[in-house]
Input
Amino acid sequence: MSPRRNRPKGPNGAASSGQSAEEDRTDRYGGWQSTVSWQGEEWSVRHVAGASAVGKTYRCPGCDQVIPSGVPHVVAWPEHSGVDERRHWHKACWNAKDRRTTRVQRSRNAPKF
Output
């Protein structure tokens, strides 16, 4: 036997939570989204909670190190670009992006991805 639903269904068949679709999407990923001006462009920046990043690893373009699974981080992309331009940054690297050089120095044996 299934539990009874106490929430009324909205017009599209989903339960209404009183939030817009955009607010629901940012809550789902555990963070908030904002717009930041950087390098003469507008960037969308979304803060991702650690619980939303379980089972996934990313490489930070700021320090070229791996962001381990389950670590809170920032996803940033130019507003007028596609999904392929999203980059996952450590929060500290994103905050220090203006103080970093444009050329990342890698060791000889470091992977280039």
Observations:
- Residues 15-29 have pLDDT under 50 and may be disordered.
- The two ends are 50 Å apart (CA to CA).
- The beta strands are 33-38, 41-48, 58-59, 66-67, 73-78, 87-89.
- The longest strand covers residues 41-48.
